[in-house]
Fold this sequence. Notes:
Blueprint: E1 8-9, E2 11-16, E3 24-28, E4 31-36, E5 40-43, E6 48-49, E7 53-60, E8 70-73, E9 76-78, E10 84-90, E11 93-101, E12 106-112, E13 119-126, E14 131-136, E15 142-147, E16 152-158, E17 165-172, E18 177-182, E19 188-193, E20 198-204, E21 211-213, E22 219-220, E23 225-230, E24 236-241, E25 246-252, E26 259-261, E27 266-267, E28 272-277, E29 283-288, E30 293-299, E31 306-308, E32 313-314, E33 319-324, E34 330-335, E35 340-346, E36 353-360, E37 368-373, E38 379-384, E39 389-395, E40 402-409, E41 414-422, E42 428-437, E43 442-448, E44 455-457, E45 463-464, E46 469-474, E47 480-485, E48 492-498, E49 505-507, E50 512-513, E51 518-523, E52 529-534, E53 539-545, E54 552-554, E55 560-561, E56 566-571, E57 577-582, E58 587-593, E59 600-602, E60 608-609, E61 614-619, E62 625-630, E63 635-641, E64 648-650, E65 656-657, E66 662-667, E67 673-678, E68 683-689, E69 696-698, E70 704-705, E71 710-715, E72 721-726, E73 730-736, E74 743-751, E75 756-765
Parallel strand pairs: 2-10
Antiparallel strand pairs: 1-6, 2-5, 3-4, 3-7, 7-9, 8-10, 11-12, 11-41, 12-13, 14-15, 15-16, 16-17, 18-19, 19-20, 20-21, 20-22, 23-24, 24-25, 25-26, 25-27, 28-29, 29-30, 30-31, 30-32, 33-34, 34-35, 35-36, 37-38, 38-39, 39-40, 42-43, 42-75, 43-44, 43-45, 46-47, 47-48, 48-49, 48-50, 51-52, 52-53, ...
Amino acid sequence: APAPAPATYTVGGTVFGLAAGASAVLQNNGGNNFTVAANGNFTFSLPMADAGAYSVSVLTQPAGDRQTCRALRNGSGTIASAPVTNVVVDCHVPRFAYVANAGDNTVSIYSVNAVTGHMRHNGYVAAGTHPHSVAVDPSGRFAYVANHSSNDVSAYTVNASTGALTSVGAVSAGTWPYAVTVDPSGRFAYVANEASFDVSAYRINASTGALTPVAGSPFAAMRDPRSVTIDPSGKFAYVANASSNTVSAYTINASTGALASIGTAVATGSVPQSVTVDPSGRFAYVANFVSNTVSAYSINPGTGALTSLGAGVATGLNPFSITVDPSGKFAYVTNTSSHDVSAYVINGSTGALTNIGAVPAGAGTGNPRSLAIDPSGRFAYVATDSSNTVTAYTINPSTGILTSAGTVSGRAGGFAIAMSKGTSEVRYTPRFAYAANTVSNNISAYTINAGSGALTPVAGSPFAGGTTNFSVSVDPAGRFVYAANSDTGTSSVSTYAINATTGALTTVGAAVAAGTNPLSVSVDPSGRFAYAANQNSNNVSGYAIDATTGALSAVPGSPFAAGMAAYSVTIDPSGRFAYVANSQGSSVSAYTINPTTGALTAVAGSPFAAGTGPDSVTVDASGMFVYVSNFGSNNTSAYTINATTGALTAIVGSPFAAGSSPYAVTTDPLGKFAYVVNANGQTVSAYTINPGTGALGAVTGSPFATASNPVSITVDRSGKFAYVAISGGTVETYAINATSGALSLVGTPVGAGVNPISITTTGSIQ
């Protein structure tokens, strides 16, 4: 009789996060191609012999959205007398990051570049008192913040295009809510309450995101619960109890969300601070703050019970949080007192951890509190509460080793970080440009060609402005334009609404009073406050912005004293600090901004020395550096910002040479380049920015020639184009070389009004 045919089995799994209309080509063992055009299950057509090795990879990535599909879990292995059905291919990309700032009761918003991992400031919103934790639901539609001192949980809707948060109210929690998490189905949220020794459970309204307490909530925990996590199946919850040195385990009622205790709490190391479960749901890990260890456990798949995997593994000093990457291959721990992040390889069979070293966090000086990994598993982000920064790292997919990818400023006391995911990268697209014409008393408006950067006048442009409008600024959402009217008899700020379709301007109410001779106006990143620098009265006017109409009203204490001849005002991208260039004082005034009222308070040591005749000031995109163009000394001053106080320290090598009569300075939105227009030099000086020190280096070919008397420069939100206002009555467009920062003139200059003195742009984010 013929020998029986050898047993064969198929290989397959599930695809997640593929964009609508996109496709990718998968391979098994370098062949047997399979095209996936939708999310869901897949199975390779050719079966494999029992005991054969399989390896799933992505041959062709989706086109258009810069997605990177990866076989995140179970991508390779050996056939074990059964079909393989658990390969996970994930195509999600990171979109936004959210940081809960315990120091000033806010939540910072950042957009994330899906290719580089670079973070970009995107405003902030108010939270409750001392927010300690933030979580985003799996759909990315809602966010939740546990407010430790106001004993409540703030709920927000997430704008899918912009990442903006809109409050949907707060709900009461227990005493000192310390951590919040959302179950994988997105139906329930859970909060660990440190001082009431319990866990609050809530049902999430699928339409609004609002929270309603689950029947029977809160559920008892042990002493000082500080972390709560849900396993990937949504069947089990685990809580780290700091004072009892235990982890409590619960089953989750699939219908109601109620918790039921699973036996006796399991012992941990000393003062467990954080608990997490790996993506397979087979292992749990606990960071022990005092014993400087990580405890590891296996999870019974039927009951959820934990079984210790042995003695704890060493960490750095005072580990605070632990996270496992989406592939389940690596674990990371933030160590608050050694100011670093420990990295581990996870044994896929046993769950055991092997230490692979540590990297500095928060530039090696901050107290790292929380670490989040993007859904693609390519980048890690660490929030530090003492240095008020967020640092990005690339993850080596083979070794798990972290490499710093840059640091951005944060608000006060960044305590926790969470990320959202999507099927397409975040894109910034330029839309409109506006130029203030100081002699013809009007504002020129243009549409921007997103491909070429070319400007086309908006129908009806120019639009009537105030008397001697000297500066123009746009709010971050691109809804309103503000113009400073510098005529000493008027001295006001005008408000305009932007037609979202055409870019046309409509005056909003009457102009509001400013100090004498306002020469500059700037809007904070939250879009809630505006500030005008008043040259002749040596002060700064502060305004609250009506969120509906854009109308301005004076903030308490306004105006605020500045130096001699306050000429230019700017706000750092985190919204914490304001800086004013004092032209006759040869200095820069620095202020902290009250996040509730918008009032300014002078920073200790302010004003800080600048060159001669500083006429323009800007903060780079990272929020780490300040640059000032000094009209009288033909150079650019550069400073580092103290992330705690806002104080300025001159950068080594500062000031940096510019051309003749530098009049305005700006930086690109990625923080790579700085540009200065030299009014009498008829040029633009271009610089690279050292991301570590902020020092400026001349771009090859700089300075770049312009028409006579350039007086203002701005870079659009995509970072592709620069626009220069020429006082003779035109605006020039330049393309920016993404690698070198060099400028290339695009087309011919477009007409403006008489003596355009200031230019700005707006754009959309998707």
